[in-house]
Amino acid sequence: MLPSGVVRRGAQGCARAKLRISDDSAGVHVLLELLAQHGDNTESLIPVAIETPRRLLVACFRGTGRKIYAINPLAAALYRDRGSVARAKSDAADARTPANILRADRHAHRALPTDSEARQPVAALARAHQDAVWDRQQMSNRLRSQLREYYPAALIAFHGAGGPD
User: Fold this and answer.
1) Whether this model's pTM surpasses 0.70
2) Which of 11, 27, 41, 103 has the most crowded Cβ, counting Cβ within 10 A?
3) Which residues, in sequence order, are bridge partners of residue 18?
């Protein structure tokens, strides 16, 4: 589950709906239906605040033409501290924080730019490439760690692989 909770807030900040959705097309459809029940339509799209500018949910929302505000996680953490001194993390607070940021300080945050037709496939390929690079590095680190633990002579045999510690 990517979005641990979704909160729709009115202009005065009171919660109008709360639900959990999955990070797949079914979850997106459920969320779009909920937004439609609360006044979302083609003339007046409800803006969305989220802490990550990537993933399937963001791509689906960008396809609807609505404004997406990607809130920096560090900024969200500072806003979270404003609402509670306990520093306890909860799904409800994590969902409420971006909604409050957008309601109170939308002018201080930039919406993600709209994707052009030509940019969408390039962005998808760039994300896939970056994910492949990260996966390769993670697997290399895992292999090196396993070899260091169980077969350190293999690391010594391959120069530059990092010998045993």
Assistant:
1) no
2) 27
3) 7
